[in-house]
Amino acid sequence: MTPFPGFPAGKTRFTPIPDLFFSELLVDIDDLAELKVTLYMFWFLHRQRGYPHYMTLKELEGERVVLSALQRIIGEDQDPIDVLRAAVDKAVARGTLLRIQVRDEAESADYLFANTPLGRKAVEQVKRGQLLLETSGYVRQVTPEPERPNIFELYEQNIGLLQPIIADELREAEDTYPTEWIEDAFRLAAENNVRNWRYIRSILDRWAREGKDDGTSPAHRRGFARPPERRSRGER
Predict the structure, then answer these.
(1) How far apart are CA 30 and CA 18, in angstroms?
(2) Looking at the structure, do residues 180 and 76 belong to the same domain, yes or no?
């Protein structure tokens, strides 16, 4: 790696970044690709003149700098365009970026805005037909669903600090049962105020043996109203 020589003396251009980025977003963003794409969008949008400031997804996919930045952190078998799109999805789901899709009979385009007062204003104007972009037609705001927590996150959110001794059981359960079952089992345990893994595992085992309904029927609530009477000391 060639060391960076440092920023030069004299007049230098700067990109303003809101303080909330450092006090909130920097703490929450745990994906390096999302962080790189977010910072690049701040830089790119700041360089624009006039109103509104935006970038299309197609334009972003053609930016050599951001693609090179992503190529440094991904495997050889990964496509930087796929990583870029996933990073954009995460930034939109987080609320850092806003995305609207404009579609007509011939083409569609995704437009990206920073979630700032001016960005929100532009998005609302486009949705109301008061602001026209290059592509005209049906407009919708795209908001991806946030990522669903995995079984380890569910354990820590509902039971407590993950114990290494239980990690293999959690991994086996994640490979065995559908994600919806696991989420419903944790939810049912929380509703019954029973916060230990053995109880949740018993729910999953029963559903595997007897079949699962929607998880809200009286039968399920009667069947799992209490935790197993016998449990090892110190088990969470």
Answers:
(1) 19
(2) no
